[in-house]
Design goal:
five-stranded antiparallel sheet, about 325 residues, alpha+beta, four-stranded antiparallel sheet, elongated
Amino acid sequence: MPIAKSERLMNLALCLMNTKRPLSKRELRDSIEAYREAADSASEDSFNRMFERDKDDLRELGLVIDVDENALDGELGYLARRDRNRLPEISLDAEEAAALSLAAGVWTQARLAGAASGALHKLRAGGALAEGDGAEAHSALEPRIPAREAAFEPLLAAARDRRPVSFAYRKSGASQPEQRGVEPWALECWHGHWYLAGWDRDRKDVRVFRLSRITGRVKARHDAFQAEVPDHVDVRQHVARFAGEGATATARIRLRRGAAFPLRTKALHAEPVDAEWDELEIPFGHGLAADLTEFGADVVVVGPAELRSDVIARLRAVAAVATSGGSAQ
């Protein structure tokens, strides 16, 4: 009967933690029964792939494995030192346990969900977090942060590792996406949407990107950041500035009665024009033209002239795509 993978991983971990010197792959293969079986029934390449997968799995579980390149006459040696794999005793009070459980439950999607759940299981196994000490014992509310966009995980990893990225980005109302090179700083969920704040290399300025408008794959670059990263990145502040919130200028628009309620919530002043239209005064800042374009024929810009021209240009671009059969990606 083939030895289960869990037993194989356990045997590998025990070998690495109970040796006083680094062991080569050959020595590990001779010491672990599952590897001997694999060596008898498969090629050397198959064993090497199995060993690399097992080593990655143990590291994913939290085992620190050192690699010594000079220990065995040119062969790599592997060792899991006990002093590097021993955690101090963890003691959590009820409020700390509830906070950890609540934070872990936030992520309902993306790879972080598994990592968060695994962390709680390890705490419970070590006795630091007892059953019933989680957030469910203190509240009936369970917050959830969905991360459905494919760009979320690669951008989160790039921001964490300080790696520049490039991606295709379609601005609201634009007919074609355009390539952007960005140094990602931070991500934040605001009003139900994920946003990335970072340094736009092409525009030499801070920019905010809505993840749902990123098309295609996010590609990581191998060079370093060029711009200085702020000590604190307030993504919401940048989003608000680009969305026109806090703007000192105002615009006058007409809205069809019963439509565009998100715009009505921003109104500084509103008055009826006739039985079909209302006229509103709203804050005018960067990004307002894109927001107005989304409401199509339900919005008419009265002023200022540059906003009206921008919205008309965006609507014409959308109409051009529609008449061409939607060939733009």
